[in-house]
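Entry 14. Structure prediction run on the chain below.
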Amino acid sequence: MAGAVMAAAVMAASWAIRARHVSKTAVAWRVGWTPSAANHVAPAAPPKHARGRPVGGPAGTPTITSLTVNPTALLTSQASGIFNATVTDPSGLGDITGGTLRDPMTDMSYGDFAGSNGTYTITLSWAEINEVRGIMVPAGGSVRVFEAVFTDMMGNSAFRQVAVTLSCGGLLVTCAPGECRSLDSTAACGSCANDCTAVEMSVPGLEVDATGCQLDAVPYCTVTLTEDVRRNCSAACADQSLECDTTEQHFGGYASGYCAEPCSPLDSPCAGGNGSCTTVDVEGTPTDLCIWTSTDVSMFPACSQTSDCANSGVCQPLSGDVVGAPLSCSETPPATLPAVTELGTQTGDFDFAQMYCQCRRP
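Output returned:
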């Protein structure tokens, strides 16, 4: 008799455990996921690892039979993606209340699907995708998962995912969310962090300008430095935390001009026929000077400034500074340069005006 009672108790406990297991399994089936073998307890929403396939449910639950995107493999900043979903419902298509496309990493919505009778679409631009979650991709792109969620009138939900490669195209990358950039530019040289333009500056007597990016084994920025201090380019570049580029030539620039002397009458030829008497502005004062018009300036003395001129002459600039012989990184240009130009030989010297250095920054 005691054995019969014990057997009955064991059987009752077994049925109780089975009842609890069935109850939890039913809850899990209703929300559309497979319960864990460890505890058989269903969470409030489908786990992310279970998404990406049609998820079953009780009678009447909708099913997303397909979720596709066009283009199928690549979305770029110049193209939009058209997402297409096909949905069925055993209770009839009229039981479907609608669907959204969302980001499963953040659960933020990209927007609602439009359509009816089981066929739905939504179109997203690069900017719209980036607004929900910033797009950061390397060269060649990276994969992002999109998830469609459709519901019915009973509040049942169906989930399905599709993976899309987001890419800037070619070797372009994003250095800021959604902003595509080439890594051979002065703004990003070899990496997003290497911004060549960070060295640029312009102050009296000094100009530093990032001019390019060289993608060698170790990418580096090319930088032009112009300053009015006469010294070697190794020192000039080092003062700006740069290196002198030993593969480039460097120069000293010299203020070039000729002494234009007062003349009269207006429009009369200058001595030697190398110019004519012309009215020019000299520090706000109209002045009649013998202005060069010939390809030969040998009749005119050279100058760097008006104080170089005799006979009340005024120094008139030639077309830009004259540069001396090419220099190495360690060479300093001379203080003066004999006045020999493509326009002819003049008397006098040109004074140093500027350094022209080619620097680099790794």
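The chain has three helices and 26 strands.
Filed with the rest of this week's runs.
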